[in-house]
Amino acid sequence: MSLYLEYIKEIATREKELGLHPKPIDGEELTSEIIAQIKDTGNEYRADSLNFFIYNTLPGTTSAAGVKAAFLKEIILGESVVAEITPTYAFELLSHMKGGPSVKVLLDLALSDNTDVAAPAAEVLKTQVFLYEADMDQLEAAYKSGNAIAKDVLESYSKAEFFTKLPEIDEEIEVVTYIAGVGDISTDLLSPGNQAHSRSDRELHGQCMMTPKEQQEIKALQAQHPTKKVMLIAEKGTMGVGSSRMSGVNNVALWAGKQASPYVPFVNFAPVVAGTNGISPIFLTTVDVTGGIGLNLKNWVKDVDAAGNTVVDDNGDAVLKEAYSVETGTVLTINTKEKKLYNAGTELSDISAAFTPQKVEFMKAGSSYAIVFGKKLQTFAAKTLGVEADAVYALSKEISHEGQGLTAVEKIFNKNAVGVTSKAALHAGSDVRVQVNIVGSQDTTGLMTSQELESMAATVISPIVDGAYQSGCHTASVWDSKAQVNIPKLMAFMNKFGLITARDPKGVYPAMTDVIHKVLNDITVDDWAIIIGGDSHTRMSKGVAFGADSGTVGLALATGEASMPIPESVKVTFKGEMKDYMDFRDVVHATQAQMLKQFGGDNVFQGRIIEVHIGTLLADQAFTFTDWSAEMKAKASICISEDKTLIESLEIAKSRIQIMIDKGMDNDIQMLNGLIKIADKRIDQITTGEQPALTPDSNAKYFAEVVIDLDLISEPMIADPDVNNPDVSKRYTHDTIRPVSFYKGERKVDLGFVGSCMVHKGDMKIIAQMLRNIEEQNGSVEFKAPLVIAPPTYNIVDELKAEGDWDVLQKYAGFEFNDDAPKESARTKYENIMYLERPGCNLCMGNQEKAEKGDTVIATSTRLFQGRVVEDSAEKKGESLLSSTPVVVLSTVLGRTPTIEEYKAAVKGIKLTDFAPPLHELSKAPTAKTISFYS
């Protein structure tokens, strides 16, 4: 059977079983067959082939785009005649293909001696922004040889006419509201993790947003208000918590945005989303990428009494009152010039933050990519012509405060800033382009990143990126049919693009399913680095790391740059002493709980950098804090490290990078060897005193300063989803932190999970010692609930084997992973045994393995969102309680949460957390102490 007939068969199946349109075409072979049928005027499939060619072939650098561009060139030159595609129409189709093969065709035509096609090709070329070095070199060479067309195109580029000639955004945008949920809305609602396999198939993935009933309600609103945009709202909460989730924004845009091009199916942009407490920082970045609008409604405010004091309820929580209604079906007007939100002429809210000059440019251009590439193209053209570039784009916002020192993140941004005009150091609020040092792509968003790279016509990683990694951890649990199709394809693309890949397309080294955050934490070998990763938990303990959507990851890979404001910082220091039976995870929980109490329930971390002063923590242990900062809704987190500790962390990183090299994972450009050289240079700088470990200036200014009292932490703590809270807006937040005594040793536990990025080697050793303790106390170890253990990396497994701890874990395990025969289907039932699972994300991701519906799970992971780790059953809501490794292990042995006495007995003799005095003064905080940790 021909490829075309196979495609027709697939279309019929797709329509019958899923009710979907034909899948977009990205392959060269099928496109070539379609073109052959178009050329054959008597072919029975010609009409459909024309439709597929024009409307259903993906642009950019897909192999299909290469064939399509070549055929359009034939039509323009008269070498092929297609009645339905005139040369003029062929130029229009090329104009929508974004770059790569289409730009090459346009350049060849524009710079040719054929005057009939050169001028129209040049006019189309002037609208294109996705030009790369080879394209620019061709244009520059033609200009220098006296080509008038080349000069004309360059002059247009130097004026950025590809941007200035675009229509301005509407002054008024009418929206109709749709309450997508009450309380914080996880991106899992918009793009469920268990549907991650379908993210690159945009129409199919769009079916999983919320529920079919809610999808129909959105369509009904659109039918009722055809000239308005539907705005999805998180009522009494924050929109898009937990993840950047480009697929979530894509889904919202698919249902409530507008089509980017009539010739590119299911690629929509410009969604409008909102939340009472705004948009989660990393999700807002994704909204900006697509030229969308993200509003902070502030439609619920704290109630105050006659004396001006905040009214609180019986639990001490602030009582909220409604400032204005946004119930579903409310028509509102966004005035983009006044930057105000109105209802029938009545002003409701100032929304200036959503319409900064930079964000408005993204909206006008349809994406942030077009702005980044446009600026680069304009700079090139002006330099080639020897002229000043026209002042077209909004000036970078450069804010400097004389006499004010710099926070740690301000120092990093100043070091890595690109194109800054100010001679003075920049402070928070400045909006700058920065060089990106480390980039990470994870496997359930990687196919989308590869699509984004294809759409922006990128073919090779930017040479200024120091290190880049493509993980396989999110699909590590089950090597099912979906993974077997998607992952090898992804790894081959990324390997060819220039990343270090978890799987070798040639099979030289075994699959490495190490958790991406742990790998990025190791390959980050400079505390002044900027890291971008395709996951909300891209939060390294060296440098400053930002979780990002698949598109921003693609942009960082292609250009080595990112654009963002310098965030404000909150300084966190510690006083007091930690009890020796407490775990560092309890410090993390206490930080969140004490911060909320100190600030009357207001989360001062949200959207800001947490600058945490725990300088004697090695990188692995410090990562436990920075990782959790995603759940604190922080933009990112920075650990201030002692010189000695940083050197030790860098030496550990070097050893782990060397292991990757020894396994054969380095690539043609010797990226991993390059990272070791960077680490060596950094160690030398610290040792000689040339550049000590990063610290803030003593006169730096912070949005807030938080001092955590360790004396107040007297028992283990649990983050509780509080699923039965009568106030639905308070369910599934990470703000309900309770001591273990709250549960009185009575909360039944159905399953325990130790794993994900929040644990490290120390946690595995703690498990081994606890099992020894329990056996010594009870004569044996019996589990009254299943315990699932997923080590983060293979390195940890190897080290545990060498040190004897793996033998202990094996002794008590009822299941152990086997890489020679990985699971091909997800587990749906669990026995009361201990499972030693493959390194990777496992239950935390929720896309493959899950707990049984309705279970109460206690886990070391970070995700307590509804349906993520455990779904609801008809009888009971699923619960994901989050706690430390010792609490999780003991809970599975007991089948319930432990009492404090049971807990202390189980951890007796285990050095969980050890505090040491600071090696030198890190801050002005009273009695600040720094932390060393069992490893």
UniProtKB/TrEMBL annotation:
Instruction: List each copy of the Aconitase B swivel domain by range.
Output: 182-406
Q: Which domain of life is it from?
A: Bacteria
What organism does the UniProt record list as the source?
Leucothrix arctica
Q: What lineage, starting at the top, does this entry show?
A: Bacteria, Pseudomonadati, Pseudomonadota, Gammaproteobacteria, Thiotrichales
Protein name as it appears in the record: Bifunctional aconitate hydratase 2/2-methylisocitrate dehydratase
A single GO molecular-function term is: 2-methylisocitrate dehydratase activity
- Pfam families membership: Aconitase (PF00330), Aconitase_2_N (PF06434), Aconitase_B_N (PF11791)
Q: Per the database record, which ranges form the Aconitase/3-isopropylmalate dehydratase large subunit alpha/beta/alpha domain?
A: 410-895
GO CC terms, sorted? cytosol
Matching entries from InterPro entries are given as: Acnase/IPM_dHydase_lsu_aba_1/3 (IPR015931), Acoase/IPM_deHydtase_lsu_aba (IPR001030), Aconitase/3IPM_dehydase_swvl (IPR015928), Aconitase/IPM_isomerase (IPR050926), Aconitase_4Fe-4S_dom (IPR036008), Aconitase_B_HEAT-like_dom (IPR015933), Aconitase_B_HEAT-like_dom_sf (IPR036288), Aconitase_B_swivel (IPR015929)
